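Supplementary Methods, section 5.1.

A reviewer requested that the exact input to the structure prediction be made available. We therefore reproduce it here, unchanged from the version used in the analyses.
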Amino acid sequence: MANEKSHTDKFEELCAGYVLHSLNEDERNEFEQMLEEATDEERQLYESLASAANQLAFTVEKAEPSDEIKKRLMAEIKSHDDDQENEISGSIHKDQTSPEDKNKGEDSFNWQAFAIAASFALLIVSLSLVFYSFNLRSQVSHQKTQIVRLKNELQQKRQMLSILGSRDVDMVIMAGMEVNPNGYGKVIWDPKKQQALLQVSNLPPVPKGKDYQLWLIKNNKPVSAGVFATDNEGDNFFKIEKMAQASKKTANAFAVTLEPKGGVPQPTGDMYLMGSMKNNSSE
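The structure derived from this sequence is encoded token-by-token as follows.
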């Protein structure tokens, strides 16, 4: 559903929490299960995040008092030993540090907290960059797929134009049969080159282990003209490279049946489309 997170989004979200040790037990078990079944890209993302988290864990150094603070503390201790009877020294004895030293100690603690916060911010920025890089690679991969698809479509259209540009072509319209009455088909056939362009529409997607098979009815006998498959019920185009040797005189009709994958010598399955030649005049 549209509101549900994709598998990749879920993996990314749990991955960030996993390397930061912020998941509860159920989420941690869920991510470890996803990691076992992760793709190469997802596993690469996990390794990148884990590496970034491990490196940043060592960037926060333990805060040490400065030499100046150490000197002041030693001076106050020495003053306490020399003036134990002194009221001010007694006060120093209770506090062990002067107000100025307290402020410097607080400054040291605040600096350590700031360093931790800065490191955490740097980790978040690093994780964001890793996510951006991962998403960018996914987008580039998708764009490459789109380019390949467009190239294939362009090549297909060029093949169609080469057949349509022939001076001697026949067009046969195929109607849907009882098993699929809404089906539609068209064969543009070049008898001289023995090539054809097949267009089909409203054919159900091919079941597993099956293929559609185109038949040329020649002298009232079916001859295979090739197999094809559809993955949607929209318009699908196929180029038939080699038709059975037939002329307008010997060709009677075209038909499409559903057969075992790879095709069969003679039709055995349900007929989905069929169309007769309107004119069988001799050449």
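The first helix runs from residue 7 to 19. These observations are discussed further in the main text.
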